[in-house]
Design brief:
The chain is of the alpha+beta class. The protein contains 5 helices and 9 strands; from the N terminus they run H-E-E-E-H-E-H-E-H-H-E-E-E-E. The relative contact order is 0.11.
Amino acid sequence: MSQKTLKAALENTIAALQKNPAGAHLVFKAHTRLLNGLRCSAEVRNFPPLIIDEPPDLGGEDAGANPVELILVALGTCQEIVYAAYAAVLGIPLDAVAVTAKGHLDLHGLFGLKEVPAGYQKISFETTLKSPADPETIRKLIALVETHCPVLDTLTRPVEVIGTVTLNGAPLNNPANYAA
């Protein structure tokens, strides 16, 4: 999609939201299920199922990225999308955007061997931009992206997470709130 086409699409969405602010509230859904071993299938909208697995040293068959890798993918691609969107709307030429994300995980937490978090202890990312725009314009773009990237925002602030469990169709527990 050209930057001009992207700009028009985003400006139409912004105008629609200004006319109808209630239209800004979306609910995204994913349905996942365990297939066999540690291999899982994830379904989002009408796309073909995505296979998620673990590497062999963690008990999987390496049939796909694992869940913690997908967090890094989500962060990198969200950054890239928000860069493209803001650059298009603001008319900033952007020739390339690439993100390398790293997550630091201590397996002691996953396996309950030590009192350390089961998830990432640190996530870092490096964004590489190519643009003929001047550095000050790019600094403003960076500030906008890092302020408005939904995945970066989700990872850096407390988010309410609620979970329930059913067993054979019957509720097994009260909703659990995993407050950050």
